[in-house]
Please model this.
Amino acid sequence: MLTTTTTKLPTRLVNNHCQLNVLFFGTADFAVPSLVALAESDHNILAVVTQPDKPSGRGNRVTFSPVKVAAQELSLPVLQPKRVRSPRFIEKVREMNPDVIALAAFGQIIPQELLVIPRLGPINVHGSLLPELRGAAPIQWSILRGDRYTGVTTMWMEPSLDTGDILQKSTVAIDNDDTTQTLTLKLAQAGALLLLDTLTALHEGTAVRTPQDHVLATIAPAIQPTDGVINWSDSAWKINCRVRAMVPKPGCTAEINGKKVKVWQTATTEINAHNCVPGTLLSIAKDRHSVVVAAGEGTAIHLLEVQPESGKRMPADAWARGLRLQPGDHFSFLST
Model:
């Protein structure tokens, strides 16, 4: 989880010498650095709007959103409407009279009745280079697709899914070992800086709205459990991308000898597996604490960290020895 202690911002943007009254909407980890950036700037946060608390885990304990936790640490007022389109909430926002509504990873589409309230505009921080990867899971899908770079976009919000005019963009490289967890942090920090730049441009009247080219749009739907199923016919690179995209959740699932296992870390290898059936266990590499498995297109992949059912994460070689796996054993092809 991102916390307020992980998002220290450069002073060039913290001291921006323009004060706007901002109503901030956010829920997920991605939104926390943007909230912290606003709190450390000269802007005035009227309130923080986040999703209602919900039960989670085995004990159904009530948990707060990452944004609510951060807002409380910052001593900011928190609003948690069940539906932001309710007349009561819309009237409350009118009474607050914000200059700007700023949103990042909130989780509800904002109705037009709210979007027209702020004097300078409703701004969304989105985790992709729009119009690429509109939707709920742009960070996961950028890794799943094997992209080498992605970025963040600030856009003028519309009451639809990420279709509004583009204000500013910032590009971020995707490293070969980036997971959704690490890339979210990088994009969240870039988004925080971009949000402050965008607010300055709005304040100074220099912001330019550029309509999106809808022909170029791609969609990044919410991740489903089936997206985490490994297809051993994919190349090692594609499998590696899938595993990295599913960290920290839901993780990637595989099965061998009737035992399911979560795969949390992998690495590609130069081992030639052209004469091997994809999914075949080739070797147990003690020097790398890994299991080498044949993949599609004649490639092979190291499984580095795995988690058996009802067990803890462990090195893949220890897991394989515990199950008495041998070269020649086959991973099943699970239904997606």
Q: What stands out?
A: The longest helix spans residues 180-204. The mean pLDDT is 93. The two ends are 29 Å apart (CA to CA). The longest strand covers residues 259-269.
